[in-house]
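Figure 6 in text form: structure in, sequence out.
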């Protein structure tokens, strides 16, 4: 039991920091750790990871929202579009042979981390607000469609895809991008975890509780620190967290 607690706590640290700092899905960290070190069935590991993501993303979104770093209106539009086209992407994935894209989200996490270190996002809220509401709404639908299709087809990378699109395509300031990303992830993770538990039954309860509490704790800490940090500092910290997690997850998967 002690070994199980330590593994879940460590997995929660990585997942919580990734969620709080960068809006990263906890599933990208927790799943490979539980599968590798606890020999847990992949389906159950993903269910636990998604359940851990729900509260961690929700508390992070609350923290970012309290600091006025959350775009709820366009976040809701993107969330609905992402959920809808994730189903479409999942259907399309069944029509083609299995591709070796298991490391997609891992490489993406690492590369996005390097991107934030080398080329930080220095967009201001003033430049964000210069975009008309109609244009932002259309952009949210288009980008949500793209993210949903990729997530459904590949099966991973949702949080990273959203952060990349929000900062690079929609021109969001980094804190608002992360806040909006975790807001969306709270709902998508809830949907995914419920479906996993309904279809596959309840997983290992102690593991579920340990992972949820550890991820929640570290996501809360990371979100608080992120909202107090200067933009350039936040970019660098986010970049280091993402790049490190990408390398560690790739190592664990091997």
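Output sequence:
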């Amino acid at each position: 039991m002690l070994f199980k607690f330590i593994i879940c706590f460590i997995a929660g640290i990585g997942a919580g920091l990734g969620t709080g700092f960068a809006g990263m899905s906890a599933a990208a960290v927790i799943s490979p750790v539980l599968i590798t070190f606890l020999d847990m069935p992949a389906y159950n590991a993903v269910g636990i990871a998604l359940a851990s993501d729900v509260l961690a993303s929700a508390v992070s979104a609350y923290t970012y929202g309290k600091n006025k770093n959350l775009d709820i209106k366009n976040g809701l539009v993107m969330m609905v579009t992402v959920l809808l086209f994730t189903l479409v992407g999942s259907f399309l994935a069944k029509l083609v042979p299995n591709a070796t894209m298991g490391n997609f989200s891992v490489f993406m996490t690492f590369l996005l981390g390097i991107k934030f270190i080398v080329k930080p996002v220095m967009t201001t809220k003033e430049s964000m607000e210069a975009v008309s509401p109609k244009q932002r709404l259309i952009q949210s639908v288009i980008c949500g469609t793209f993210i949903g299709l990729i997530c459904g087809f590949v099966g991973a990378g949702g949080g990273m895809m959203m952060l990349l699109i929000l900062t690079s395509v929609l021109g969001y300031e980094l804190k608002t991008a992360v806040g909006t990303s975790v807001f969306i992830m709270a709902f998508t993770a809830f949907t995914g975890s419920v479906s996993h538990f309904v279809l596959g039954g309840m997983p290992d309860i102690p593991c579920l509780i340990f992972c949820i509490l550890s991820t929640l704790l570290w996501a809360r800490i990371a979100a608080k620190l992120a909202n107090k940090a200067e933009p350039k500092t936040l970019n660098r910290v986010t970049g280091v967290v993402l790049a490190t997690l990408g390398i560690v997850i790739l190592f664990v998967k091997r």
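Caption detail: Residues 166 and 177 are 6 Å apart (CA to CA).
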